[in-house]
Write a structure and sequence with these properties.
By secondary structure, this protein is α/β, with parallel strands linked by helices. The protein has two domains: 167 residues, 3-Layer(aba) Sandwich (Rossmann fold), CATH 3.40.50.300; 177 residues, Glutathione S-transferase Yfyf (Class Pi), Chain A, domain 2 (Up-down Bundle). It is 39% helix and 24% strand. A six-stranded antiparallel β-sheet has the order 2-1-4-5-6-7, covered by helices on one side. It has a six-stranded mixed β-sheet with strand order 8-12-13-3-14-15, sandwiched between helices. A three-stranded antiparallel β-sheet has the order 9-10-11. The model has no long low-confidence stretch (mean pLDDT 92).
Length: 353
């Protein structure tokens, strides 16, 4: 997967930028708040996902402009392709000039892995962030997974609404079985895919972490379900408690992945350096999994993370990304001299100078 040309118009602080990157390492540098991360963010949108910075669509449009237009020309499995996104209060996506039903339809067409300082939350924060990571990663290699997620979320919302009404309308109890069946149907598919992905993640991330730590520390990833047994059994066992609480206490929306360093929780006991290395290992492993499934590496987006790593970790990363297209944002490009050949783009006030 290689981007040949990137065009941004009225995107955040960028009036217009046309970028023609190389196949290897592309360094985007400049002072803070000049627009470096905006370029990385725009590329990420072509995966079909929302902004990794949590921004709403309307916040992506340049102040004073009616809309933003972004487009890429890229190489996928040796074939030329193009995609574009129009942003107003929401995003509209196009592939080869043809309108798509939704931006989610881009999933699987263009793949990328992004790592920014905010992704440390993958280790430091609660289970919701790790579930979100799993779901986003799986969608890139199995776009049909997104439909299962939407259906599960809808069934969960309906079931929770019903649980809140049942204490006041006992006659509604019989309808709970309908939503339980829907929850089981899609929930089991989600859990199955997550467990499969977590096993791949454990395999690849363990190798990456060994390289980052110079094989001085052990690393492991395990999927943690919210209860023991199948979902049908768990829902039945918890039904009375769920009615009392007004919410569904078991299911993939309550699951987590346990990330361990030297046998203990990275979240609870890992140092800041260990947590950063763990998050990086997981994200780099994500790229390896995409490669194993699709046959080609995704575009790698590293947003302002290299400066926080020591020289040995920087060397490990740079020595293991030479065979893929990479975009790295930083303030000082000289610090990345070990990247070897590539291209550098200086950005100031939303323009390449």
């Amino acid at each position: 997967m290689k981007i040949r040309k990137l065009t941004l118009k009225n995107y955040r602080n960028i009036e217009k930028i046309v970028l023609e990157p190389c196949d290897g390492v592309n360094i985007i540098f400049g002072e803070n708040a000049q627009g470096k991360t905006n370029i990385i963010e725009a590329i990420w949108l072509f995966t079909g996902c929302k902004s990794f910075r949590g921004a709403k669509d309307r916040e992506l449009v340049r102040f004073g402009a009616e809309k933003s237009d972004i487009s890429i020309e890229y190489d996928s499995a040796g074939a030329d392709a193009e995609a574009s996104i129009e942003i107003t209060n929401r995003r509209k996506a196009f592939s080869g000039g043809v309108p798509l039903p939704s931006p989610v339809s881009l999933m699987g067409e263009f793949t990328a892995v992004v790592f920014s300082p905010s992704h440390l939350g993958l280790i430091k924060n609660g289970p919701a962030e790790r579930r979100r990571f799993l779901d986003t990663a799986i969608c890139q290699i199995k776009p049909s997974y997104a439909a299962a997620l939407r259906n599960y979320t809808h069934a969960l919302e309906q079931r929770n609404s019903l649980l809140k009404d049942i204490p006041y309308h006992g006659e509604l109890l019989d309808t709970l079985d309908v939503w339980d069946e829907r929850l089981i149907q899609f929930g089991e598919k989600i859990t199955e895919e997550r467990i499969r992905y977590a096993r791949l993640l454990a395999d690849y991330a363990t190798r990456v972490y060994a390289g980052l730590s110079d094989e001085k520390e052990s690393f492991d990833v395990r999927y943690e379900a919210s209860g023991e047994g199948d979902l049908k059994q768990l829902l039945f066992q918890q039904r009375k408690n769920d009615i009392i609480s007004g919410s569904t206490s078991v299911g993939p929306h309550r699951d987590d992945i346990d990330i361990r360093i030297n046998g203990v929780s990275a979240r609870s006991f890992g140092s800041q350096g260990q947590q950063r290395s763990a998050a990086l290992a997981v994200k780099m492993a994500e790229g390896e999994i995409v490669k194993s499934v699709t046959g080609e590496y995704p575009v790698l987006l590293l947003d302002d993370v290299m400066s926080e790593l020591d020289a040995s970790r920087q060397n490990y990363i740079l020595n293991n990304i030479r065979d893929r297209q990479v975009f790295i944002t930083c303030c000082d490009p000289d610090a990345l001299g070990r990247a070897g050949t590539g291209m550098k783009f200086r950005i100031k006030d939303g323009r390449i100078v």
